[in-house]
Amino acid sequence: MSTTKSNTRTGGQILIDQLVAQGVERVTCVPGESYLAALDALHDTSIDVMICRAEGGAAMMAEAYGKLTGRPGICFVTRGPGATNASHGVHIAMQDSTPMILFVGQVDTAMREREAFQELDYRAVFGSMAKWVVEIDQPDRIPELVARAFRVAMQGRPGPVVIALPENMLTESAAVADAPRVEPAVSWPAPSDVERLGALLAKAKAPIVVLGGSGWNAEATAAIARFAERFDLPVATSFRRASLFDADHSHYAGDVGIGPDPRLKARVTGADLILLIGGRLSEMPSSSYTLLDIPVPAQKLVHVHSGAEELGRVYQPELAIQASPIAFAGALDTLKPTAKPAWAGEAAKAHADYIDWTQTPRELPGAFQYGQVMTWLRDRLPKDAIVCNGAGNYAGWIHRHHRFHSFAAQLAPTSGSMGYGVPAAVLAKRQHPDRVVVAFAGDGCFLMNGQEFATAVQYDAPLIVIVVDNAQYGTIRMHQERDYPGRVVGTQLKNPDFAAYAKAFGGHGEKVERTEEFAPAFERALASGKPAILHCFLDPRAQSVGKDFVPRDKA
């Protein structure tokens, strides 16, 4: 496009034209007067504008989009409190390595440094939780900086970018060419690195593969499955990355998340070769950095990651390979075993251990057997169902007993952020209306972004939310009982009727107090064609998927 006078546009129009050029199909937002010119420019596009009820939910939806597609999720929020509310989603995108771009309104450039209305220094606010923070002062630089933002968000280790938009810049005019669609540069493994991996495998006695991180697609996960079959390798997934490998596959060993199967943990610590692809083995999947010695693991570590800065950041590997998971998985097709491996049969044993670990839930106190409900859902849900959750002990039953089969079927924050499940599910159902989408939330977790149920109703996104209500912040209560027994403070909750909440918004709602009530309630929710909430009551003594407690307070 030429930069002739006929191409003169406002900054708001130039900005939205860049999103169109980058193939953006939907954005999430809470509207604000600080970016009205950009909102106006959206009016004449085919971009789906999802109006949300709070900036935290809007940002989490954008993050979920990045997880599902590999392209940056786009979120618009206003300045000041809008930006700080959205920081929840930015932090998730950082720790989960998700491509995302947050556009934030900013004060007029003539008012900066005066602490004008809702003014913030966004570089200072977001500098520690974003890959890049920039403020665009001139409309003619919008194509340059937006294209760069897409590239930064996707290249290397993916992550969030924050772009501040001064109000006057969006209304000023400029003649400038649009930037072309950005496709991220991909790092590929050197053939010599793949050959060296083959040599390490040939000498190994007890290897294991661990998958994690972002930057995958369905084809890459299929290539890993072929590799595992050829070499008869057990494959584990990292915390909340279970949908990177089909749970029914004969070589799946389970997830190394919070409270992993002791047999799987022993396999990792007892391995002589760990092939870590895409992940970082950070605090949660490493059992608080105890699985591998730091800085030099006892096991030979082959670490594959798209970000050079992550290689050797914590663990010094035997072999560091800077490559995207997609490129590395494709390169593995050239690697063939030369003889029957020394560990032959271990993958089948690991999978049998996984089935045993996840098969039968323990009996819980109370009339609602959450574990039995989870195993019923495991058999009932389609294999491509998308399951979302936030943070809390209720998620332990998902990790332990649900089995993921399809790529990107799990949307959950590795950062442990509460309130994620509902907004993620709204976006997922909007993105994949033909797939069943279920969100799990504890009673505390749900009310952190439960208002986005209204967004689901507004956009006719018939997700199902399962609220597991134990009338407390259960994770913190568990820690209190462990560290300060009998001294309960700050964790008890008095909750509303969540089924009535659903109906008030125009959705479907039911209470579930007994195990046998769940299945018919779920079927009715699915058949209703509406966003639905099933309000399930869990005995407060059901502390976690692994243990109970007997309350010692008088409450």
Q: Calculate the mean pLDDT score and round it.
A: 94
Q: What structural category characterises the helix and strand content?
A: alpha/beta
Number of strands: 20
Q: pLDDT under 50 segments (min length 5)? A: 1-5
Q: Which strand order spans the largest sheet, edge to edge or round the barrel?
A: 3-2-4-5-7-6
Shape: globular
Look at the structure and name the CATH superfamily of the largest domain.
Answer: Thiamin diphosphate (ThDP)-binding fold, Pyr/PP domains
Helical content stands at: 25-40%
Task: Give the number of domains.
Answer: 3
CATH topology of the largest domain: Rossmann fold
Main beta sheet strand tally, sense and closure: 6 strands, parallel
- The Cα radius of gyration reads 24 Å
Strand content: 15-25%
What is the terminal-to-terminal distance?
69 Å
Structural summary, described in words:
It is a single chain. The protein has 555 residues and is α/β, with parallel strands linked by helices. It folds into three domains: 5-175, Rossmann fold (3-Layer(aba) Sandwich); 191-354, 3-Layer(aba) Sandwich (Rossmann fold); 360-537, Rossmann fold, CATH 3.40.50.970. It is 36% helix and 17% strand. It contains 20 helices and 20 strands. It has helices at residues 11-21, 36-42, 55-69, 81-95, 122-126, 142-154, 167-171, 191-203, 218-231, 262-270, 325-331, 346-359, 370-380, 395-401, 421-431, 443-449, 453-458, 474-483, 498-504, 515-528, and strands spanning 8-10, 26-29, 48-51, 73-77, 100-106, 132-135, 160-166, 173-175, 207-211, 235-238, 252-256, 273-277, 300-305, 319-322, 386-389, 410-411, 437-442, 464-469, 508-512, 532-537. A six-stranded parallel sheet has the order 3-2-4-5-7-6, sandwiched between helices. A six-stranded parallel sheet has the order 11-10-9-12-13-14, with helices on both faces. A six-stranded parallel sheet has the order 16-15-17-18-20-19, with helices on both faces. Strand 6 (132-135), helix 6 and strand 7 form a beta-alpha-beta unit. Helix 1 packs parallel to helix 6. The longest helix is centred in the first third of the chain and has 15 residues, at 55-69. It is globular and about 70 Å long.
